[in-house]
Amino acid sequence: MDPTISPDERRTAFGRIPSRVAVERDAAGVWHVRGFAAARALLRGDSTRQAGFKAELVERVPGRGKVPILFLEGRPHHEQRRLTAPFFTPRAVDTRYRPLMARLADRVIADFRRQRRAELSAMGMEMAVGVAAEVVGLTDSRRRGLDRRINAFFAGGLEQGGGWLRRIRQALVAQFRLLRFYWIDVRPSMAARRARPREDVISHLLAQGYRGTEVLTECITYGAAGMVTTREFITVCAWHLIDDAALRAQYLAADEPARHALLEELLRLEPVVGTLFRRTTCPVTLGEAEIPEGAMVAVDVRAVNADPAVSGERPLAKQPGRCPAQRAGAPVLSFGDGAHRCPGSFLAIQETDIFLTRLLAVPGLRFEREPRVGWNDLVTGYELREAWLACE
Fold first, then answer.
1. Which residue stretches of the chain are H helix?
2. Which of 19, 44, 119, 347 is buried most, with the most CB atoms less than 10 Å from its CB?
3. What's the pLDDT tens digit per position in 67-78?
4. Per residue in 312-325, pLDDT tens?
5. Span 281-299, mean pLDDT?
6. Nearest to 120 by CA among 367, 390, 356, 387
7. Which UniProt keywords apply (predicted)?
8. What DSSP state is assigned to residue 114?
9. Residue 288: exposed, middle, or buried by beta-carbon count in 10 A (0-12, 13-18, 19+)?
10. CA quadruple 247, 252, 254, 255: dihedral sign
11. CB 316 within 8 Å of CB 5
């Protein structure tokens, strides 16, 4: 086995070793990018448009009007990113949301200690929803259960395919979930912010003249980005840290910057979003590959993060303190790159750290059952479920 690849300490890769072919076209005409240099050049260029995250789900919203920020390109995208950036800066996260994160984590951990048993991904979802709801402005729901309503969008039942009866049923299920989310969560939160604007995304959208369905599509987008993915990040980091006593001790003894760096290394190893899809808008040259206009390009984040050219030797092993080359950040491409890089990266790291420092300090913490690894088509990545924890 190649010494630059072994050993493999990943928990979520389904046994697949990343290909070392930097760029290649498959039989279906999809171009796969697996090398760091090629991936960064593509994502930082202006020759592609967003093609992932189930654009058809958003397109089902009737009369949606303005294009969600996830699918904007060019100057409109840059302008919206500039306007929403203040919600996600390290300073804003640290001063505005840290107390909220601490309260949420304390509540979730207190419930766990009282019951002495809990499902880890459900705890992570409660944490992620509580934080993202505050940032977005989904804080005035008519009834509890926002986490379940958000999760329903990504838990199946909205896929294409099948016979006409199945397609009709899928369309009805999708519309029901959209309407339920709108009437129970989005609409009352909009009304509260029309009466009294706050420093959150919904208030910002209303100030720009967004209509109800347009706010709804943005809330779905942020639901995927800020809630579902963070839940998986919390779960996979906890899995590694609970199972590895030495790593857990190192994490708990470290200061906050060192803890954040360790979490970023785990995310490099286990990226939540496994593939970034783009559609070329003109011919693109990546090394010796000539990709034509209109081609689908799939950036394999796992393979890019394991490219020895950027991550060095033993890229499939967790190595706190690893310093990726070529000025890549510690997570490499786990938060994307270029214009569509995830704006909430520091938010995700901060809330995960606040939650895990409390969880790992619980006496007698152990797994009754380790996570079951599944697949989520929305983020083309893993789902970790049925991870039962127990404590003294």
1. 36-44, 55-59, 74-84, 90-92, 98-115, 120-136, 146-152, 164-181, 187-195, 201-207, 212-223, 229-243, 245-253, 256-269, 301-305, 308-311, 345-359
2. 347
3. 666 666 778 777
4. 999 999 999 898 99
5. 95
6. 387
7. Heme, Iron, Metal-binding, Monooxygenase, Oxidoreductase
8. H
9. exposed
10. positive
11. yes
| Residue 22 φ/ψ, nearest 5 degrees | -65, -45
3-state secondary structure of 210: coil
Residue spans of the domains in the chain: they are 23-390
Residue (of 165, 185, 93) closest to 131 by Cα position: 93
H helix intervals, 85-211: 90-92, 98-115, 120-136, 146-152, 164-181, 187-195, 201-207
Q: Tokens 């030495």 identify what position?
A: 246
SS3 292: coil
Q: Are 236 and 382 in contact (CB under 8 A)?
A: yes
The CA distance from 309 to 40, in Å, is 13
Determine the distance from the C-alpha atom of residue 42 to the mean position of all C-alpha atoms in its chain, rounded to a whole number.
20
What CATH number was assigned to the domain covering residues 23-390? 1.10.630.10
Could you tell me how many residues make up the chain?
392
Check residue 228 and report its DSSP letter: I
Q: How far is CA 126 from CA 43, 89, 142, 151, 358, in A?
A: 32, 23, 18, 11, 15
Q: What is the DSSP letter of 17?
A: P
> Quick one: which of 291, 276, 379, 288 has its CA closest to 49?
276
Burial of 210-248, coded b for 16+ CB within 10 Å and e otherwise, reads beebbbbbbbbbbbbbbbbbbbbbbbbbbbbbbeeeebb
**Average of pLDDT values for 249-275?**
96
